[in-house]
């Protein structure tokens, strides 16, 4: 079970004076059960890359497979394969259209051909995943909700399709830190409970480190680094700086503390774990 | 993809045509259009085509771009040709099969009409290819200003047009995004009968309208926050000034128009004078 991209290149507006290469010979395999973060600057090609993961864009050259089904083909098998990848776009609340929260979340599963009873169960499950109370919200109009709630409705609409893989394009953009944490907690929960593959597009190193177990760094339409986040920070910090990205502050601080003679474990991923580690070292409670 | 549409897209450059005053370009395009309606025979059409070819040449627009601007209307062009071909009245039948017959007159008329459409399309495309939308609306506003005394809200019209033009690519991009999002949720836009298809469009149209209204609202707030109160007493950063090249453009277009008129009505005019 995996999504596989083989030598994919993609050119926008091919054959016009505005032609632009967005992806250049990219090959990558994403297994079910992985939590992959894709990081890169605006215009690096990361959004273009993820749109190939469920066949929304047709590669100019190269091939894309989901669970060994070639996405270039036609027929029910290809459709099914594409539907096994749930896609949450940037500002997903802008795609909400139905009169009630229930109807909007049910749109995906209905298209997938589930019966009404199954749809109801899927909607209920999806809503509980994103912490929206079914009794309270199901019959409300989604347009009267707050921004954070609307985003959760939109994410629930994708989760309700019971995808094997979930692709999220900057799911925290434009949210306050609290709402951001809640969204990520929900995604992590989903990842652990359903054992799906998650692909998270972000430009925040902090987010990438905290949640992902694999990090792809995209620059200029190419994947330049592909490894566990900690390994990348340890071995390739110069390469990150070359594409004007930086390793998280906490890692820098931990590194300079080590140089000053403090022995810190390698598992530090954020400020909290650094504080805990120092306290442990110093015997402070 | 939707965002690949080129009609009305500015093609940056610094040619003679690019540097012309927008007012000149609009008037020249207008005169040219009058010319296409006067033209009737091979000679006058030849002059028009030659003039357009000359403009394309000195504007240094790639031919592929010009051809692409005709593409959206090719069905209408072919229909025009076919309808005139098969319904044209005339004596000289070239081809007939059962109830279908093609006359030479009909064929000529069809070719002429299609040519006229192509010329109109190409000239207006050249206008928008060589003039950025902002400059273009500046030109329209300047040309409409004399009519303000009879109640034409020149500035407001120009502002509305600027905003509308500005939002075409934005809304196209938005449509593309929403379509992809709904496709990813299993929506199929090419399935079922007409009613079903129309219904399938709702998941695109509703978010699109909502986003258009949201953007309009945000833009209105942003404009008011910068003290926009309409055209009264506004000065502008770029003043429009007629230059020597504008005179050149006017004179050459004038010559073209007069030549066309002379070819068409020359004999009548001579008759009148005698």
Give an overview of the whole structure:
- The complex is a heterodimer of chains A (285) and B (274).
- Chain A has two domains: 2-242, P-loop containing nucleotide triphosphate hydrolases (Rossmann fold); 248-285, no CATH class.
- In chain A, a hairpin with a 7-residue loop joins strand 1 (2-12) and strand 2.
- Chain A starts with a strand and ends with a helix.
- Chain A has 285 residues and is α/β, with parallel strands linked by helices.
- Chain A is built from twelve helices and ten strands.
- Chain B is mainly alpha-helical.
- Chain B has two domains: 1-131 and 239-268, no CATH class; 151-234, no CATH class.
- Chain B has eleven helices and two strands; from the N terminus they run H-H-H-H-H-E-E-H-H-H-H-H-H.
- Chain B has helices at residues 16-19, 22-38, 42-59, 63-70, 74-87, 104-130, 133-144, 154-184, 194-200, 202-225, 244-273; strands at residues 93-97, 100-103.
- In chain B, a hairpin with a 2-residue loop joins strand 1 and strand 2 (100-103).
- The radius of gyration of chain B is 24 Å and the shape is flat.
- The mean pLDDT of chain B is 86.
- Classes of the chains: A alpha/beta (285), B mainly alpha (274).
- The A-B interface holds A 13, 15-17, 51, 54, 56, 83, 85-87, 89, 92, 94-97, 107-108, 111-112, 143, 157-158, 161 and B 3-4, 6, 11, 62, 64-65, 68, 174, 177-178, 180-188, 202-203, 206-207, 210-211.
């Amino acid at each position: 079970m995996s999504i596989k991209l083989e030598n994919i290149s993609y050119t926008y507006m091919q054959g016009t004076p505005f032609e632009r290469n967005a992806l250049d010979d990219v090959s990558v395999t994403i297994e079910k059960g992985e939590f992959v973060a894709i990081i890169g600057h605006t215009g690096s090609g990361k959004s273009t890359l993820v749109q190939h993961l469920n066949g929304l864009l047709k590669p100019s050259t190269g091939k894309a497979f989901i669970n060994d089904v070639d996405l270039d083909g036609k027929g029910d098998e290809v459709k099914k394969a594409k539907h096994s990848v749930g896609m949450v776009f940037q500002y997903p609340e802008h795609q909400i259209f139905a009169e009630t929260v229930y109807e909007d979340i049910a749109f995906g599963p209905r298209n997938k051909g589930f019966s009404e009873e199954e749809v109801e169960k899927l909607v209920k499950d999806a809503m509980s995943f994103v912490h929206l109370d079914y009794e309270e919200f199901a019959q409300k109009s989604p347009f009267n909700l707050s921004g954070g709630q609307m985003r959760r409705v939109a994410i629930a609409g994708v989760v309700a399709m019971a995808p094997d893989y979930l692709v999220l394009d900057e799911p925290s953009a434009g949210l306050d830190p609290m709402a951001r944490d809640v969204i990520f907690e929900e995604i992590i929960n989903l990842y652990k409970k359903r054992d799906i593959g998650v692909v998270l597009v972000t430009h925040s190193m902090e987010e990438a480190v905290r949640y992902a177990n694999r990090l792809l760094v995209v620059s200029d339409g190419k994947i330049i680094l592909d490894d566990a986040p900690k390994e990348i920070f340890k071995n390739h910090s110069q390469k990150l700086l070359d594409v004007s990205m930086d390793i998280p502050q906490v890692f820098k601080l931990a590194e300079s503390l080590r140089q000053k003679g403090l022995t810190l474990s390698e598992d530090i991923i954020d400020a909290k774990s650094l504080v805990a580690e120092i306290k442990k070292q110093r015997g402070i409670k | 993809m939707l965002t690949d549409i080129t009609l009305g897209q500015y093609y940056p450059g610094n040619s003679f045509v690019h540097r012309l005053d927008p007012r000149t370009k609009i008037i020249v395009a207008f005169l040219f259009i009058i010319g296409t309606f006067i033209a009737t025979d091979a000679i006058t059409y030849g002059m028009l085509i030659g003039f357009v070819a000359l403009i394309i040449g000195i504007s240094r627009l790639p031919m592929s771009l010009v051809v692409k601007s005709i593409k959206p209307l090719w069905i209408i062009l072919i229909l025009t040709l076919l309808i005139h071909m098969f319904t044209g009245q005339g004596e000289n039948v070239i081809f007939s099969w059962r109830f279908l017959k093609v006359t030479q007159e009909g064929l000529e008329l069809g070719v002429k009409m299609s040519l006229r459409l192509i010329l109109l399309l190409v000239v207006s495309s050249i206008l928008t290819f060589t003039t950025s939308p902002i400059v273009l609306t500046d030109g329209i506003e300047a040309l409409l200003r004399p009519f303000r005394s009879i109640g034409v809200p020149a500035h407001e019209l120009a502002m509305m047009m600027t905003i509308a033009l500005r939002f075409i690519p934005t809304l196209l991009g938005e449509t593309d995004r929403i379509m992809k999002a709904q496709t990813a949720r299993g929506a199929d836009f090419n399935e079922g009968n007409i009613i079903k298809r129309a219904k399938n469009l709702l998941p695109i149209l509703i978010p699109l309208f909502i986003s258009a209204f949201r953007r309009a609202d945000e833009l209105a707030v942003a404009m008011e926050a910068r003290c926009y109160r309409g055209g009264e007493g506004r000065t502008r950063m770029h003043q429009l000034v007629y230059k020597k090249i504008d005179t050149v453009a006017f004179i050459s277009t004038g010559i073209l128009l007069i030549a066309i008129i002379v070819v068409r009505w020359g004999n009548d005019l001579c008759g009148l004078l005698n």
